[in-house]
From TrEMBL:
Record's keyword terms, sorted: Cytoplasm, DNA damage, DNA recombination, DNA repair, DNA-binding, Endonuclease, Hydrolase, Magnesium, Metal-binding, Nuclease
Function summary: The RuvA-RuvB-RuvC complex processes Holliday junction (HJ) DNA during genetic recombination and DNA repair. Endonuclease that resolves HJ intermediates. Cleaves cruciform DNA by making single-stranded nicks across the HJ at symmetrical positions within the homologous arms, yielding a 5'-phosphate and a 3'-hydroxyl group; requires a central core of homology in the junction. The consensus cleavage sequence is 5'-(A/T)TT(C/G)-3'. Cleavage occurs on the 3'-side of the TT dinucleotide at the point of strand exchange.
Catalytic activity from the UniProt record: Endonucleolytic cleavage at a junction such as a reciprocal single-stranded crossover between two homologous DNA duplexes (Holliday junction)
EC number(s) recorded for this UniProt protein: 3.1.21.10
Residues making up the signal peptide according to the UniProt record: none
Cellular location(s): Cytoplasm
The organism of origin for this protein: Speluncibacter jeojiensis
Pfam families in the record: RuvC (PF02075)
Protein name stated in the entry: Crossover junction endodeoxyribonuclease RuvC
Biased composition (Low complexity): 172-181
Length: 200
């Protein structure tokens, strides 16, 4: 499975590409950070991020895009910029029929380090070890993008099992409702027939 990890942001947007193998085997293929100047108009900043992400999608052909979900941030302006950057990338993926999954920062930290409250240094250190890199990826946005891709590789089987369980539950509920409706119709029919017999 080829996963494109995205750590969205307006000033710096981390993008990575990882191949997931058997078990927990992962191989880093590429990583980069897209930068946009703060004085550039918002629409142009988003366009630059979208163009870069689309180039990665068209060049590398990922099976899925893993994007950090904006969970909560004290700085509302930063949170909005992060959400906007993630949104244009998700849209570009949807246009290409590429699956998009969102992971919260705590999910990524827990998957990579075993602790949902790990700091950036711990995440970067584990990413460097997991991928067997000679030096830690910099800046932090690059490491975060790699962490997102690895997180998805390792969580994908569980996500698939949960989706299948939800699908089966929905199908069972649909079948139950259909049987219930049939039973009600049959019961109403018997009641009506019984009433006609009594009037005779």
């Amino acid at each position: 499975m080829r996963v494109m990890g995205v750590d969205p942001g307006l000033t710096r947007c981390g993008i990575s590409l990882v191949d997931g193998g058997l078990g927990r085997s992962v191989t880093a293929l590429d990583v980069d950070v897209v930068r946009t100047p703060p004085d550039m108009p918002l629409a142009q900043r988003l366009l630059r991020i979208s163009d870069a992400a689309e180039h990665w999608m068209d060049t590398h052909g990922p099976d899925v895009i893993a994007i950090e979900r904006v969970f909560s941030q004290n700085n509302v302006r930063t949170a909005m910029g992060t959400a906007q950057a993630g949104g244009v990338i998700a849209l570009a993926a949807a246009r290409r029929g590429i699956e998009v999954c969102f992971h919260t920062p705590s999910e990524v930290k827990a998957a990579v380090t075993g602790s949902g409250s790990a700091d950036k240094a711990q995440v970067t250190g584990m990413i460097t070890r997991i991928l067997g890199l000679q030096q830690a990826p910099k800046p932090a946005d690059a490491a975060d993008a790699l962490a997102l891709a690895i997180c998805h590789c390792w969580r994908a089987p569980m996500i698939a099992r949960m989706a299948e369980a939800e699908r089966r539950a929905a199908e069972q509920q649909r079948q139950f409702k259909a049987r219930l409706a049939t039973a009600r119709r049959d019961g109403a029919g018997r009641t009506a027939n019984s009433g006609r017999k009594e009037t005779r």
